[in-house]
Amino acid sequence: MASREEVTLSEEEVRSRYSHLEKMTDLVAVWEVALSDGVHKIEFEHGTTSGKRVVYVDGKEIIRKEWMFKLVGKETFTVGVSKTRATINIDAVSGFAYEYTLEINGKSLKKYMENRSKTTNTWVLSLGGTDYRVVLEKDTMDVWCNGEKMETAGEFVEDGTETHFSVGDHSCYIKAVSSGKRKEGIIHTLIVDDREIPEAVE
Predict the structure, then answer these.
(1) Side-chain half-sphere of 44: how many Cα atoms within 13 Å?
(2) 107, 84 contact by CB (below 8 A)
(3) Of 50-54, 87-91, 162-166, 188-192, which gets the smallest average pLDDT?
(4) What PANTHER family does its record include (predicted)?
């Protein structure tokens, strides 16, 4: 009679072996958050039987809590290079139904993005087969390109200012000109190799 070989797997081995199944069943929310350093993907797993909570930012696990007795509550973490504060709120709606909301810097994602569209300009362009996302933070005049803060040089010109920087071997500048209308304020235009780039809507 052949002896049956007993196999014991550690919790880690079981988790890694079946993690793809676990991921599929407990993923309850996915958000995309546009920050100056890029668009970040936030995923949230919530096991409504075990109370498990897992938060992923750009595919990387940053919070894992197993066997939580309290099914409602919040998880707070940071996103991006500038460590922007994010909070996922878990609220019971009715019975065993839950609602998940994301707050960025204490504001709902919708409010944060509305406010962000007033304080930043974003351009998306392709140069030599590479895609670039250029972001201007209007309050600080910081310029970001594909997640990196750019070295810039400001210059006063006849009708406003120009903020110069380069992307690869391409010379770029953001021109700031008064619109002449109080509600519109200053108009920012990105010029790359003497060509105006249309602004992107995020």
Answers:
(1) 23
(2) no
(3) 50-54
(4) FAS APOPTOTIC INHIBITORY MOLECULE 1 (PTHR13088:SF3), FAS APOPTOTIC INHIBITORY MOLECULE FAIM (PTHR13088)
Question: Among 70, 79, 68, 103, which residue's Cα sits nearest to residue 89?
Answer: 103
Categorize the per-residue pLDDT at 200 as very low, low, confident or very high, splitting at 50, 70 and 90: confident
Do 44 and 27 form a contact (C-beta atoms < 8 A)? yes
* Closest listed residue to residue 170, CA positions, set 125, 122, 120: 125
Residue type, 148: E
Residue type present at position 64: R
How long, in residues, is the chain? 202
Q: Which residue has the tokens 């139904």?
A: 97
**pTM for the model:** 0.76
Q: For residue range 118-141, list pLDDT tens digits in order.
A: 899 999 999 888 999 999 999 899
Could you tell me how far CA 61 lies from the centroid of its own chain? 15
- Could you read off the pLDDT of 163-175 as tens digits, one per residue? 999 998 899 999 9
